[in-house]
Amino acid sequence: AQITYLGNCESGMRPATNTGNSFYGAFQFTIGTWNAMATGYERADLAPLDVQMAAVQKLLSRSSIYTQFPGCAAKMRNIGLL
User: Fold this and answer.
1) Is the pTM of this model over 0.90?
2) Cβ neighbours around 80 below 10 Å, total
3) HEC secondary structure over the chain
4) Main-chain dihedrals φ then ψ at residue 18, nearest 5 degrees
5) From residue 26, how far is each of 32, 39, 47, 65 by CA, in Å?
6) Rounded to whole angstroms, how far apart are CA atoms 1 and 3?
7) In angstroms, rounded to a whole number, what is the distance separating the alpha carbons of residues 27 and 8?
8) pLDDT score of 22
9) In this predicted model, what pLDDT tens digit does every residue of 25-65 receive, in sequence order?
10) Cα–Cα separations (whole angstroms), residue 20 to 27, 54, 62
11) 10-18 CB contacts, 8 Å cutoff, 24+ apart
């Protein structure tokens, strides 16, 4: 439920999201953060959703959801998901 809410909050859970805002994929990764996840895909919007989900879980094992996704984390906290 948490990862689905996060993806919906960030992009409407659209894995191919590339709006030109320098954030990519369902979870709106920056290039630097995406590259640090070493997925083998050039950008998040080019990777399948399951790869993006694994990358966000890897990221959150290393860093706080409040740091990485502050707006959506606050919403998740407010509704009791965090």
Assistant:
1) yes
2) 6
3) CHHHHHHHHHHCCCCCCECCCCCECCCCECHHHHHHCCCCCCCHHHCCHHHHHHHHHHHHHHCCHHHHCHHHHHHHHHCCCC
4) -150, 90
5) 16, 15, 10, 15
6) 6
7) 8
8) 97
9) 999 999 999 999 999 999 999 999 999 999 999 999 999 99
10) 14, 23, 27
11) 10/69, 10/72, 13/49, 15/44, 15/45, 15/47, 15/48, 15/49, 15/52, 16/45, 17/45, 18/43, 18/45
Main-chain dihedrals φ then ψ at residue 29, nearest 5 degrees: -70, 145
Q: Distance (Å, rounded) from C-alpha 11 to C-alpha 25?
A: 7
d(CA 67, CA 46): 24
Tokens for 8, please give them: 């919906």
